[in-house]
Specification:
The structure holds two protein chains of two kinds. In chain A, 9% of the residues lie in helices and 35% in strands. By secondary structure, chain A is mainly beta. The chains are: A mainly beta, B alpha+beta.
């Protein structure tokens, strides 16, 4: 199946801003995070189709997955 | 501090702190060992100073009855990483209720002044009354204990924060400094004066790299009292690092709490720009007085764009492994590093940049630098100016002051300079008073008289219960954006249980980046207190003390005349909802009414049990 992956901020460095990605059906968000070699330490927000989600959530064909760095004060 | 017990919870009075009280009218100085009343007193910071403020009846911040309290936290000057905080407390000139009474307030900053202050042997310095002439206070360690002396300060008048520090450095070796700028000297017309704290990097490089205790106008209160500077002169007294504290420090540097702030090169989130990037993804970066337009304009100040023309260097406070300072330098023609411009923290970058319609990094840096050198709180300054610009946009036929509009750098620069010089009380007294004067209060972005930081209020109804700086005393600013919580239960729990614990850092001497997600009621803090002082304290003890201190702050607000209606967001948020912000719209009148009812239902019974 295909999903659209959007990366935000520092995650784009040496990766991409947005791409269509072929993934296995029933893939979880964590698999994509691992494939992209993004550290969970600085993964702050996961959105699926603009809605907050978690790394264990299962992706569906046509989903848009957004990965955002940590947000904090200061 | 003197510890005659290892159990400060059961035997708080067996812990004594060294206090010096100076009567500025008579010049008399009193040194005493004061027994602690409770764990809040032991921890220090605002947990202690608010108990002193609660004993006073103060109707006017600029009055003899209002003390200025300078203190540290228990871990200030310890070997625990980030233990560098100094606290300035008093009744605020800028934050106040609609009844006209000033609110109790504290402000805090890092730099090395706090550690030096602690190493003189003093834990707290209270300034009473007002000096007839400008003075500065020298706090010294001596064989007989700490001594405090007042000296004439005429020679420092009119200098910027940085220039005052550099002038004092020539006179005092092995010392650090806390000073006000011209803004604080012009306290009659500037209520947002900050206190600048010297850093090692500043003293060595000669560059204006102060840290600031900015919020609440404690620099203006200092100016009113005619105290121009503080000098803390002492040898360094860092204890050797114990295995327990070393382990904690490694956790601080490598753990989750500070990860966001570490440079990208160290696998961190890059600090300042992580907030910009994330909030922009939701179109929630404040723009043109907190009205994001759903466009890409804020991205002009994102790191990748700033780096094209400027050099960014990640630096740190004294002895801190969290290199959270994104210092911006000009680039010379040959590509080498040029003049230091400013430190880009998220709030100043946004509130003196995008939120004023300024999208050029160099211009934003110059405004930040000007505000810092005059010694003004960048949040209050930026938000008051953005209010003015919004007013002028709505009234092109009769604009205020110099008629500045969004993006009009030269005119905005003129406003900053003239405000810092004390020539524009309309700006210097903050957005609440300016909006009351114009009669258009709905788009003045303050809560309870204190300007909001750079997180849209639509995303943070918790601002209403913040007792000091809006986001640094109520950590709900990420509850919707980061955690995706849009239900009432989560917000009630966040405000009344979890997120208020942010204020604990302002009791103990640690920077919030020590463990911003978890507060100070953690095993890491317990381990530090055991290792440094042999104290037996549990995480529950600490959390209970933090909650009492927070509630005391809330009770003080109510005592100073705040009505519950003032625990609210700027009216524009729900009168004109901003459809550009791509997050659930929770800031509706219905949601906020129900939140008010349920939050007070939790807090009110506890407030009744709390003795001020």
């Amino acid at each position: 199946m295909q999903i659209r992956v959007r990366l935000i901020g520092a995650f784009r460095i040496e990766r991409f801003k947005e791409e269509i990605r072929e993934v296995a059906s029933e893939s979880r968000v964590q698999q994509i995070v691992d494939e992209l070699q993004i550290s969970n330490r600085i993964l702050g927000i996961v959105l699926i189709n603009g809605v907050h989600a978690g790394v264990e959530d299962i992706l569906q064909d046509g989903d848009t997955l957004s990965l955002l760095p940590i947000l904090g004060g200061g | 501090m003197k510890f005659l017990t290892t159990d400060p919870v059961a035997e708080a009075s067996s812990v004594l702190y060294k206090r010096c009280t100076i009567d500025l009218r008579s010049g008399t100085t009193t040194l005493e060992d004061v027994p602690c009343r409770n764990l809040e007193d032991v921890l220090g910071g605002f947990g202690r100073s608010f108990q002193v403020l609660a004993e006073r009846k103060v109707d006017n911040a600029y009055s003899a009855e209002n003390p200025l309290i300078v203190n540290t936290g228990l871990l200030t000057g310890s070997s625990a990483m980030t233990g560098m905080r100094t606290y300035f407390s008093g009744y605020s000139p800028i934050k106040g209720s609609k009844k006209g009474l000033p609110s109790a307030m504290w402000s805090t900053g890092s730099g090395k002044f706090g550690a030096k202050f602690k190493w003189t042997g003093l834990d707290e310095l209270i300034f009473e009354n007002r000096s007839e002439t400008p003075v500065y206070a020298v706090i010294r360690e001596t064989a007989a204990g700490p001594q405090v002396e007042l000296k004439p300060a005429e020679k420092l008048l009119g200098l910027s924060t940085h220039d005052k520090i550099m002038a004092l450095q020539k006179e005092y070796a092995d010392a650090h400094f806390a000073v006000i700028g011209q803004a604080g000297e012009n306290w009659q017309n500037v209520y947002m004066g900050a206190v600048a704290l010297s850093t090692e990097n500043q003293l060595k490089s000669g560059e204006d790299k102060c840290r600031f205790a900015g919020r609440g106008g404690m620099g203006s209160l200092m100016g009113y009292k005619n105290i121009i500077a503080l000098v803390a002169q002492s040898s360094d007294k860092l204890k050797s690092l114990s295995p327990a504290v070393k382990k904690v420090n490694i956790n601080v540097v490598k753990g989750g709490g500070s990860t966001r702030l570490q440079p990208l090169s160290r696998g961190g989130g890059g600090g300042t720009w992580a907030a910009y990037d994330v909030l922009q993804a939701f179109h929630a970066v404040p723009l043109n007085n907190f009205r994001p337009q759903g466009n890409a304009l804020p991205e002009k100040l994102c790191r990748e764009n700033v780096e094209q023309d400027y050099e960014i260097k990640s630096e740190a406070c004294f002895r801190c492994g969290i290199t959270c300072h994104n210092n911006v330098y000009a680039k010379n023609a040959d590509g080498s590093r040029g003049e230091f411009l400013a430190k880009f923290d998220y709030e100043p970058l946004n509130l003196l940049g995008s939120n004023l319609g300024i999208h050029d990094a160099g211009q934003a840096a110059r405004l930040i630098q000007l505000g810092d050198n005059y010694g003004m709180d960048s949040i209050s300054l930026g938000v008051t100016i953005s209010y003015l610009l919004a007013y002028n946009e709505r009234h092109p036929e009769k604009p205020l002051l110099n008629g500045a509009g969004f993006g009009d750098y030269e005119k905005i620069r003129e406003l900053v300079i003239r405000a810092g010089e004390g020539e524009l009380p309309e700006i210097g007294k903050g957005s609440m008073r300016l909006s009351q004067a114009t009669g258009e209060t709905s788009y003045a972005y303050h809560v309870k008289g204190l300007e909001l930081p750079a997180y849209q209020p639509e995303t943070n109804p918790g601002y209403a219960w913040a007792i000091a700086g809006g986001h640094m005393s109520m950590a709900t600013y990420g509850l919707l954006t980061r955690e995706g919580k849009s239900d009432l239960d989560s917000w009630v729990k966040g405000i009344t249980q979890d997120k208020l614990h942010m204020v604990g850092f302002d009791m103990i001497g640690l920077c919030k980046f020590f463990d911003i997600a978890n507060g100070i009621g953690t095993q890491m803090v317990v381990d530090c207190l055991k290792s440094e002082f042999e104290l037996e304290i549990t995480t529950d003890d600490i959390r209970a003390a933090v909650r009492r201190a927070f509630l005391r702050g809330l009770a003080l607000e109510l005592r100073q005349g705040y009505s519950k209606e003032e625990f609210a967001l700027p009216a524009e948020v729900y009168e004109h909802p901003n459809a550009n912000i791509q997050l659930p719209q929770i800031a509706t009148p219905e949601f906020l009414d129900e939140l008010q009812r349920r939050v007070w239902a939790v807090f009110e019974p506890e407030l009744e049990d709390l003795s001020l």
